[in-house]
Amino acid sequence: MKGIGPQLPLDTDEVDGTYSLTKTYREQVKQNFKNLLLTSPGEKMMNPDFGVGLRRFLFDPSVQVVPALKTRIKSQTQKYLPFIQIYKINVNTTDSFGTKDEDSQILSVDISYGVPSINLNTNVVFTTEGTN
Description:
Layout: E1 5-6, E2 12-13, E3 17-19, E4 21-22, H1 25-38, H2 54-58, H3 65-80, E5 85-94, E6 106-115, E7 120-129
Antiparallel strand pairs: 1-4, 2-3, 5-6, 6-7
């Protein structure tokens, strides 16, 4: 079966040719969405606005970043992957003891999304603990 695009991270594959390939639109959409979320603005050549820069938010886990993060996810998805519908974005900030706190050290982002044209409804979750 032919592939749609290279599977990330790149890995050699004798079956597909030089690199492993995504085989379905569902796989490709998930990969493209994850790429959009993790790419930092300025990182993609010739398109400095592309990307949410989720890592930047994950390592500044304070309640002040939550509205900015949600806005960035929605605007970037609408601009670069308009076929994706964002259903819900849950951002949880907790301190290392599991309570809500202004000086949070842990941030969790859970995004429920879908692509109706290919009957895809799924979610992606990113979590990290602060290094403080």
